[in-house]
Write a structure and sequence with these properties.
The protein is of the alpha+beta class. It contains three helices and ten strands, in the order βαβααββββββββ.
Length: 238
């Protein structure tokens, strides 16, 4: 897998112009006017989004109401499904069904879960994964609620010093892949170009107390011949 760097059109034009011959020296001849590089044009400059309402600001941790404090400051004794239920219920009430905080269909999807520990066979909440993303020795809970077979609500929760469970990352995405390494979480999503997949890398921000986006890149999709015989491995846009 190779991390791709994509040059924008104007940048490519500059490189082409710089490399083209401008003097008739040793067989090189002028290619004439290669065109003018124009500055970007801003669209709808008079339109700005409204500021987020209180409780809807991105980049802030949110204590999940209704979840008991974690015993021993560990997520291991916390039921992932209970946390997601409480979080979705609270977020739905806060955004009034607008979808700013959570997909409006999330509550209906959660209704498919039973009171079994794993939610039952039809529950769309993915099995929770524990991984230390903060570097403080405490494992975070990583899970996702699948909305419609393609779109998902990715969630990461941590235990705060007082034992309360807080959401430190919420991301609505088409989860082509989710990877963890040390204190990083990478979310892979399809792009409109089937040759590339977008990779958003999140890392812990101790000052903000959340997982913040640290890097956004493109990866080349592997050719079918590059995949192992079993078909396992990263996939790209379908």
């Amino acid at each position: 897998m190779h991390r791709a760097r994509v040059l924008a059109g104007p940048a490519i034009a500059v490189l082409v112009a710089a490399s083209a011959g401008c003097a008739d020296v040793e067989g090189l001849s002028s290619q004439g006017d290669l065109g003018t590089v124009h500055a970007p044009k801003s669209l709808w400059k008079d339109r700005r989004p409204a500021p987020p309402a209180p409780g809807q600001k991105p980049g802030t941790a949110a204590v999940v109401p209704g979840v008991p404090k974690a015993h021993g400051l560990s997520m291991r004794g916390v039921n992932a499904l209970d946390v997601v239920r409480a979080d979705v219920t609270s977020a739905t009430a806060q955004d009034g069904g607008t979808g700013r905080l959570v997909d409006p269909r999330a509550v209906q999807r959660l209704a498919l879960c039973t009171r079994a520990a794993d939610g039952g066979p039809d529950c769309p909440v993915r099995p929770g994964v524990l991984h230390d993303l903060t570097g403080n020795g405490r494992e975070e809970l990583i899970t996702a609620l699948d909305i419609d077979g393609r779109l998902s609500e990715l969630r990461v929760y941590t235990v705060q010093d007082d034992g309360s469970v807080a959401r430190v990352l919420a991301r609505r995405a088409v989860l082509e892949g989710v990877e963890v390494a040390a204190e990083h979480l990478a979310v892979r999503e399809p792009t409109s170009n089937p040759k590339y997949v977008a990779v958003a890398d999140y890392e812990w921000d101790p000052k903000a107390g959340v997982m913040n986006l640290s890097q956004l890149t493109l990866d080349e999709c592997p050719a079918l011949t590059d995949l192992p015989p079993s078909g396992d491995g990263p996939r790209c846009a379908r």
